[in-house]
Design brief:
This protein has about 140 residues and is an alpha+beta fold. The chain contains three helices and six strands; from the N terminus they run H-H-H-E-E-E-E-E-E.
């Protein structure tokens, strides 16, 4: 399956408010080797979602829960295409924190990504272009 088609198939999956958890989100963790039963759907899950999409679509994936782990996966590109990975910094460029999602489009000042844990759900959201650390082109796993 095409990576962006797989990513879009989860559009609208959202965290469950309160003490219950959305089992779909916990499954993202399970599928990539983490025990979702020990996590909450409030756990930062943008990388878990991106890993789930890439893995179940037959592409390279980081296998880690940190967004910046994607900086070591695939090949850097200055001309991203729909479905490429976008890695952003959070708090500061030198922080360990970040965000990751799938490239949709760019305008002069913003990059639109389809990602998990954006407004506590899978959706498309715009981020300031100056926060991009890298665009990464993934390859299919043989």
């Amino acid at each position: 399956m095409n990576i962006i088609t797989k990513a879009l198939s989860e559009y609208g999956v959202k965290e469950t408010v309160g003490s219950k958890d959305n089992l779909r989100i916990l499954n993202y963790f399970n599928e990539i080797g983490f025990d979702g039963s020990k996590l909450k759907d409030e756990t930062a899950w943008c990388s878990a979602y991106s890993n789930w999409v890439a893995k179940t679509s037959g592409y390279q994936y980081s296998g880690k829960l940190t967004a910046r782990s994607w900086l070591r996966i695939g090949t850097s590109t200055s001309t991203p295409k729909v479905g490429d990975i976008v890695v952003f910094w959070r708090e500061s460029p030198s922080s360990w924190k970040g965000h990751v999602g799938f490239f949709i489009k760019a305008t002069k000042n913003y990059v639109y990504v389809l990602g998990g844990n954006q407004r506590n759900m899978v959706c498309i959201k715009a981020y300031p272009k100056h926060r991009v650390l890298d665009y990464r082109e993934l390859t299919r796993v043989k």
